[in-house]
Design goal:
single chain, 222 residues, alpha+beta, Glutaredoxin, six-stranded mixed β-sheet, 9 helices
């Protein structure tokens, strides 16, 4: 499954604003407690998740408003983190792609801004769990504040201000260039490799942990 199949699959909005929520304030995002527990204590550095000394690196190429990417995050990532990342066996690097439209750019810029405070993964995961309909304008400041308020230690005004910084713009361009150089043309896509070598693109058979585990296990045994 890939972003290429989207034209054949009806899109559903993930979470609507709660009825009766105060004007200008979004409902509390779903999954905040679970996301905090999943990521608690795991090193984050920008878009990197896990120990930099992990022997294997997994590179995830994804768009924050791609529903298939959200499916992988829900079905595969928690198990990958528990089995590989938390024990220090694998680190994950997120390479954002923004080809779906304006909301992709807004979402990735905000997540990168949170990454300046080493909370990229908290914000990105909550975006996936609360993903709106493609290019519906769902990535608003109100939405971002509602997510940011649930992330411990995140300075939300600082995150919002950093979205337009030169550093974030440079990261946006670098991610696009990296995906292009790697030959990535669909999301989600993955590359794996020993941390001291160049990761190579791999075929993922399914959007759950079983789809990527054979590639990780082979490298860990090598």
């Amino acid at each position: 499954m890939s972003r290429r199949l989207l034209a054949l699959v009806p899109l559903a909005a993930a979470v609507a604003l709660a009825v009766g929520a105060p004007p200008g304030r979004a409902a509390a995002p779903i999954g905040a407690a679970q996301t905090a527990a999943l990521l608690r204590g795991i090193p984050q550095h920008g878009v990197d998740l896990g120990s930099p000394k992990a022997p294997v690196t997994l590179v995830e190429f994804a768009d924050l408003q791609c529903p298939f990417c959200a499916q992988w995050e829900r079905n595969a990532l928690p198990e990958i983190i528990r089995k590989y990342v938390r024990p220090g066996r694998v680190r994950i690097i997120f390479v954002g792609m923004t080809f779906l439209g304006a909301d992709s750019v807004k979402a990735f810029s905000a997540a990168l801004a949170a990454g300046k405070q080493n909370r990229f993964w908290n914000v990105a995961e909550l975006m996936y769990l609360n993903q709106g309909k493609e290019n519906s304008g769902w990535v608003t400041d109100t939405f971002l504040r509602s997510i940011g308020r649930t992330v411990k230690t995140l300075n939300v005004p600082k995150m919002l201000a950093a979205r337009s910084s030169a550093g974030v713009k440079a990261q946006l361009a670098a991610a696009s260039n990296l995906a292009s150089t790697a030959g990535v043309n669909q999301t989600p896509s993955f590359a794996v490799g020993r941390t001291d070598a160049t990761p190579q693109l791999v075929h993922v058979s399914s959007l759950d942990a079983a789809g990527i585990e054979p590639a990780l296990d082979a490298l860990l045994k090598g």
